[in-house]
Design brief:
Distance between the termini: 54 Å
Oligomer: single chain
Number of helices: 12
Shape: elongated
Helix content: 55-70%
Strand content: 5-15%
Order of helices and strands: HHHHHHEHHEEEEHHHH
């Protein structure tokens, strides 16, 4: 990979992606059965695109990604799974578009319910715009080793914050977990503030009373008592007060 490393200085992301794809394709052709041409081209394209995207991340985004890289053996499988899910969603969208054309032409489509996977995925992205990185129960079980039954028990007891993304689907902000458990104090904060979205928004916002630190950062430092008192004071304010 020395040739690739030596040619990335000053390149734009698009140029870097092209260089990475070309280099990966060269390496793959040298070590993979050449008869599998389509797989080589696809692998090089995906690998080069991901490499360029990671290099272009901000330091904060790379730190968040580092959590996933603790078990790199599973990273490729996760990426492929996401690609397959997206491919399936595109196929479903195309099928629905074809059904619409068929209706216009006087044909009847096959019966079936509209899939919600795509809507839920978009909703999760929108949540991340203000809440930070979030994940569903499958990710938490596979990556943080939190069993679904345990996660749902925490949710019923109010010991973890779950954000609704549409229908009955919930996602869980990852910053509330330390060593595979929600930080202490979440339950009391929820009891005082009530609404999960309001509670999470308050937890991640820098607070004057904590010298600009977010209440969540103090929970992670085992200062739950201070945060709980602040949450009680926040909940006692008149609606609209800052």
């Amino acid at each position: 990979m020395n040739r690739l490393t030596g040619t990335t200085g000053g390149l734009s992301r698009l140029e870097l992606e092209r260089v990475a794809v070309a280099e990966l394709e060269r390496v793959l052709r040298a070590g993979v059965d050449p008869s599998n041409e389509a797989a080589i081209a696809t692998s090089a394209f995906v690998g080069g695109s991901i490499a360029a995207a990671i290099v272009s991340l901000s330091p904060r985004q790379r730190r968040a990604l580092d959590r996933l890289l603790k078990d790199p053996s599973k990273l490729a499988a996760k990426i492929v799974k996401l690609l397959l899910v997206d491919a399936a969603q595109i196929s479903e969208s195309s099928a629905r578009a074809e059904q619409g054309v068929a209706l216009l032409e006087g044909s009847l489509p096959e019966s079936g319910s509209e899939p919600s996977t795509q809507r839920n995925g978009l909703a999760s992205v929108l949540v991340e715009e203000w809440a930070g990185q979030v994940a569903g129960s499958t990710y938490l079980e596979e990556t943080l080793r939190i069993p679904r039954s345990t996660l749902h028990r925490w949710q019923r007891r109010g010991e973890v914050i779950a954000l609704r993304t549409g229908g009955r689907k919930h996602v869980f902000p990852l910053a509330q977990f330390v060593d595979g458990r929600p930080v202490s104090g979440i339950r009391e904060v929820l009891e005082f503030i009530g609404h999960p979205r309001t509670a999470w928004s308050w937890l991640i916002r820098p607070a004057v009373e904590f010298d600009g630190e977010a209440p969540l950062a103090l929970l992670a430092k085992d200062h739950a008592d201070d945060v709980i008192r602040a949450a009680e004071a926040f909940a006692a304010r008149p609606t609209g007060a800052v």
